Amino acid sequence: MSILRFDELTPVPWKNGLGITRxxxxxxxxxxxxxxxxxxxxxxxxxxxPFSRFPGIDRTIVLLEGDGFTMVxxxxxxxxxxxxxxxxxxxxxxxxxxxxxxxATRDFNLMIRRGRVHGTLDVVSGPASLxxxxxxxxxxxxxxxxxxxxxxxxxxxxxxPRSVDLSARSTVLLIRITPIxx
Length: 182
Hints:
Layout (H helix, E strand, L loop, with lengths): L1 E3 L6 E3 L6 E8 L10 E8 L11 E9 L3 E5 L3 E5 L6 E4 L4 E5 L4 E9 L3 E9 L2 E4 L5 E6 L1 E4 L2 E4 L3 E3 L3 E4 L4 E9 L3
Antiparallel strand pairs: 1-16, 2-3, 3-4, 4-10, 5-8, 5-10, 6-7, 6-9, 11-18, 12-17, 13-16, 13-18, 14-15, 14-17
């Protein structure tokens, strides 16, 4: 288990250079944005900039802070990402245009290389006590929790957690990653 605190994450440009993200975990370590198997990050969206495209990647996005935005995928399909902690999945090769619903927002991103690994993102709200032996990564989206005996707060991410005591009005994102095939 290791704890990654939000304020210790380094802001870097999006793949397309039009925004800022903070990479939490990338696998394998040292991978680039073109060759990772899976990646988790937190992005700031403060303009109506298009999302970076990631061919061959399945993406899941979750609004963490702010009013959110409306996504227009490939000029046809709209999705309002305006409710915090409700995951939305879409193909990484989609052309995604954004219209902000208000001011700047922050969102959590799970990216999985299609056909190589399988990933799920589940949302759990407290109060709750969980055994998390099969969880690869846990992100505390809001509130407080004791994870493997250590106090954690909003923005903390824990790799390979084993147990979680989640406070009332707190929410965690549980990420499970499994390889596909031999």
